[in-house]
Amino acid sequence: MLVFRDRKKFANVLESEVKHAFDPLSPTAIDSAGFGYEGFRVKLSNGRIDCLPGGVHLWCEITPEILEVLDWIFANAYGMTHAKGL
Protein backbone atom coordinates (compact mmCIF):
# COMPACT_ATOMS: atom_id res chain seq x y z
CA MET A 1 0.00 0.00 0.00
CA LEU A 2 1.67 3.16 -1.15
CA VAL A 3 0.59 6.28 0.68
CA PHE A 4 3.25 8.89 -0.10
CA ARG A 5 5.44 7.43 -2.83
CA ASP A 6 8.49 9.71 -2.54
CA ARG A 7 8.49 10.40 1.21
CA LYS A 8 11.86 9.61 2.81
CA LYS A 9 11.01 10.30 6.48
CA PHE A 10 8.04 9.53 8.68
CA ALA A 11 5.94 12.64 9.34
CA ASN A 12 4.85 13.72 12.83
CA VAL A 13 6.42 10.65 14.54
CA LEU A 14 9.88 9.27 15.08
CA GLU A 15 10.94 6.05 13.38
CA SER A 16 11.46 4.58 16.87
CA GLU A 17 7.78 5.25 17.70
CA VAL A 18 6.66 3.44 14.56
CA LYS A 19 8.93 0.49 15.42
CA HIS A 20 7.45 0.42 18.92
CA ALA A 21 3.95 0.09 17.41
CA PHE A 22 4.96 -3.40 16.19
CA ASP A 23 5.78 -4.67 19.72
CA PRO A 24 2.35 -6.35 20.22
CA LEU A 25 3.10 -8.57 17.19
CA SER A 26 6.20 -10.03 18.90
CA PRO A 27 8.49 -9.61 15.88
CA THR A 28 11.39 -12.04 15.51
CA ALA A 29 13.56 -9.22 14.09
CA ILE A 30 13.40 -5.63 12.93
CA ASP A 31 15.97 -4.70 10.29
CA SER A 32 16.69 -1.47 8.46
CA ALA A 33 15.08 -1.36 5.03
CA GLY A 34 18.03 0.58 3.61
CA PHE A 35 17.31 2.51 0.41
CA GLY A 36 18.89 5.64 1.95
CA TYR A 37 15.89 6.69 4.05
CA GLU A 38 13.91 5.72 7.12
CA GLY A 39 12.06 2.43 7.16
CA PHE A 40 12.46 -1.13 8.31
CA ARG A 41 11.45 -4.75 7.79
CA VAL A 42 9.52 -6.41 10.57
CA LYS A 43 10.02 -10.17 10.52
CA LEU A 44 7.18 -12.11 12.05
CA SER A 45 6.86 -15.83 12.76
CA ASN A 46 4.44 -16.09 9.82
CA GLY A 47 5.73 -13.46 7.38
CA ARG A 48 7.08 -9.94 7.05
CA ILE A 49 5.94 -6.33 6.95
CA ASP A 50 8.02 -3.65 5.26
CA CYS A 51 7.24 -0.29 6.84
CA LEU A 52 8.54 2.67 4.85
CA PRO A 53 7.78 6.39 5.11
CA GLY A 54 5.89 6.13 1.82
CA GLY A 55 3.86 3.00 2.49
CA VAL A 56 3.52 -0.47 3.92
CA HIS A 57 4.18 -3.79 2.17
CA LEU A 58 2.47 -6.82 3.71
CA TRP A 59 3.95 -10.29 3.25
CA CYS A 60 1.78 -12.00 5.86
CA GLU A 61 -1.76 -12.95 6.77
CA ILE A 62 -3.80 -9.92 7.80
CA THR A 63 -5.08 -10.67 11.30
CA PRO A 64 -6.97 -8.43 13.75
CA GLU A 65 -3.65 -7.77 15.53
CA ILE A 66 -2.01 -6.69 12.25
CA LEU A 67 -5.01 -4.41 11.55
CA GLU A 68 -4.61 -2.73 14.96
CA VAL A 69 -0.96 -1.93 14.22
CA LEU A 70 -1.83 -0.73 10.71
CA ASP A 71 -4.58 1.52 12.12
CA TRP A 72 -2.01 3.16 14.39
CA ILE A 73 0.51 3.55 11.56
CA PHE A 74 -2.00 5.03 9.13
CA ALA A 75 -3.31 7.47 11.76
CA ASN A 76 0.04 8.49 13.27
CA ALA A 77 2.79 7.95 10.70
CA TYR A 78 0.75 8.82 7.59
CA GLY A 79 -1.83 11.18 9.12
CA MET A 80 -4.77 9.26 7.69
CA THR A 81 -7.93 8.27 9.54
CA HIS A 82 -11.01 6.33 8.53
CA ALA A 83 -14.64 6.60 9.44
CA LYS A 84 -15.81 3.88 11.78
CA GLY A 85 -18.62 1.68 10.53
CA LEU A 86 -17.85 1.91 6.81
Descriptive account of the structure:
Strand 3 (47-52) and strand 4 (55-59) form a beta hairpin. By secondary structure, the protein is of the alpha+beta class. It has helices spanning 15-21, 64-76, and strands at 29-32, 40-44, 47-52, 55-59. The longest helix is centred in the C-terminal third of the chain and has 13 residues, at 64-76. It has a four-stranded antiparallel beta sheet, with no helix packed on it. It contains two helices and four strands; from the N terminus they run αββββα.
Short summary:
By secondary structure, the chain is α+β, with helices and mostly antiparallel strands. It has helices spanning 15-21, 64-76, and strands at residues 29-32, 40-44, 47-52, 55-59.
Q: For the residues shown, what is the average pLDDT?
A: 88
Number of strands: 4
Q: Tell the overall outline.
A: globular
- How far apart, in Å, are the first and last alpha carbons? 19 Å
Radius of gyration: 12 Å
Secondary-structure element sequence?
A: HEEEEH
Main beta sheet strand tally, sense and closure: 4 strands, antiparallel
The number of helical segments is: 2
Residue ranges: pLDDT <50 for 5 or more in a row? Answer: none
**β-strand amount:** 15-25%
Helix amount, in percent? 10-25%
Q: Order of strands in the sheet with the most strands?
A: 1-2-3-4
Q: Which structural class is indicated by helix and strand composition? A: alpha+beta
Throw out a few tags for this protein.
alpha+beta; 2 helices; single chain; 23% helix; four-stranded antiparallel beta sheet; 86 residues
